């Protein structure tokens, strides 16, 4: 790949691509207007819940505007699905090499703009069930791939469905035994970061609550900022040192949301 230059990367779980561009959108609100306005040059999408044809149809205005698309459609209709949009050519695209997970639409990495960018959607899991065991197998598979990418300029962006510390979840006391904040999940993320990968948003926003990126649609979670920080940029050491700024593009009002997540954007110098 070409020598890397300044690059701004964003990640957003769209909670259904068609809803994000239609049902929850108005003329000036939704994923498509956001794509027109964002300064991000690479955007990772998760939970598209669409096959490749549906995704291309939903994103047709953005593609006509110059975005390049790579996608991994889900193997089960209406679930999962990840994609990467780039203002630069996508030089290569790869799925997760795994007999179990390759076709699940939970991981896609691309080479673009001189870096490797992956869009990842970790299973939600459910404590003490087979769903949690599946989540743990996926985590182990991703960790193995990250070990291979460690020396590259790479970043894995997406919905990791794990709040790492008490600063990453408002109601941490009420979630100690629930998937997403289990001690084993948090320890896995600590171990992963111990290998040199960097949670760049936390590095740029140390010792503060949040910034949260997911809030339940229910109740007053959004209004009270009772959220979770589960959407991460995990960058390799060589890319992490270039991280200059990070923000969560949180809607001003509940009524202006077009997903239950907000975009998390990092600028790499």
Automatic annotation (TrEMBL):
Q: Where is this site: Transition state stabilizer?
A: 161
Cofactors required: Mg(2+); Mn(2+)
Q: What is this protein called?
A: Exodeoxyribonuclease III
Site annotation Important for catalytic activity: residues:
231
Q: Which family does it belong to?
A: Belongs to the DNA repair enzymes AP/ExoA family.
Q: Where is the active site?
A: 121, 159, 261
Q: Source gene?
A: xth
The feature of type site (Interaction with DNA substrate) is located at 261
Every Endonuclease/exonuclease/phosphatase domain range: 11-261
One GO MF term attached to the UniProt entry: metal ion binding
Keyword Manganese found: yes
- UniProt KW Coiled coil keyword: no
**Which InterPro entries does this chain map to?**
AP_endonuc_1, Endo/exonu/phosph_ase_sf, Endo/exonuclease/phosphatase, ExoIII-like
Cofactor binding note of this UniProt entry: Probably binds two magnesium or manganese ions per subunit.
> What species is given as this protein's source?
Mycolicibacterium alvei
Q: What is the lineage of its organism?
A: Bacteria, Bacillati, Actinomycetota, Actinomycetes, Mycobacteriales
Q: Which UniProt keywords apply?
A: Hydrolase, Magnesium, Manganese, Metal-binding
- GO terms for biological process, alphabetical: DNA repair
Residues annotated to bind Mg(2+): 13, 47, 159, 161, 260-261
